[in-house]
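Folded chain entry —
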Amino acid sequence: TVFEPYNISPLDRTVKFMTAKPSGLQQFKDTFQSNRSYNVNEDFSHVLALAESGDVKAMYELANMYFYGFTNESGKSVCDYEKAHTWVKKIIDCSPVASCEYSAALSMMGELYYCGVVPKEQQSFSEAILYHRRACGMGVTYSEQKYAFMLSAGIGCEFDYDKVELHFSSAIKNGDSFA
């Protein structure tokens, strides 16, 4: 068996990914901009109108656009965590608890707290773990993986090997490629 050399171990790569703040990477924005038939501004306006009319899926899409960032018509990057938080909170407040939008919003709220970008609040791992635990209880594999990672490192909670194994195993079973 020949092993490929690598510069960074898989664990280091996972830790780096899990502890990174969202950056609104230009490469993802360029993908949309290179598609001549796609107009970010028209899409944003359409999604905003739907979200303001109460469409929960549009609210979630808008929250994602603000969280990860998008490029507006003048070429400037728009990444606004306060607006992302506002839309995520609206989803949590208005959607049925059993909906996939609700569970995805819980996961995103956990990520906002984890990254320390919730407006007027400090980074809170304990809040992040509460939201991720609620979301993983609803089957969100990303939150299961994030919750297991936080448990394994004792971030916002005490280390608990049994829960770490349970949640990483569950995330793997449910198809999370990072777990």
Q: What stands out?
A: The radius of gyration is 18 Å. Residues 1-6 have pLDDT under 50 and may be disordered.
